[in-house]
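Problem 12. The chain below contains 139 residues. Write out its predicted structure in token notation.
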Amino acid sequence: MILTFTIEFPNSRDDDEEDMMRKIEIESSSTLDDLHLAIQQAIDFDNDHMYEFFVSKNTRSRRKTTYDIDSNDVFDITLDDIYPIEAGNKLFYLFDYGDSWIFKITKTRKTPESAIEGVLYPRVIESIGENPEQYEECD
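Solution.
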């Protein structure tokens, strides 16, 4: 089955820039690592840092469930394993522990659909705003 996710990055780093949103479709049997790679491609980041996913009420909550590379969770846990998420909680993606790129991931309420023959998943189906700039340009 195909799930649809909204990936949001509130551009709090630069007030002049609009928030970024990407809507992607991905197979429900995909792992969290597959989702990581889909996000990397959707926002055109270099895949050169550690990352994790976590479920919590917000990004500052002390109570959270973390899925990371150290525990191999991201390679074993599928989206089918994560959803449904307990009411009031959200899925977040933290990329690069130094720069702390945090993205909120929301599964649409839409019923999962069957894969369309000939379509390659994951794929971006909607894009709003510019990609965040992973590395600032050096003068």
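Discussion. The mean pLDDT is 88. Students who got a different answer should revisit the alignment rule from Section 12.3.
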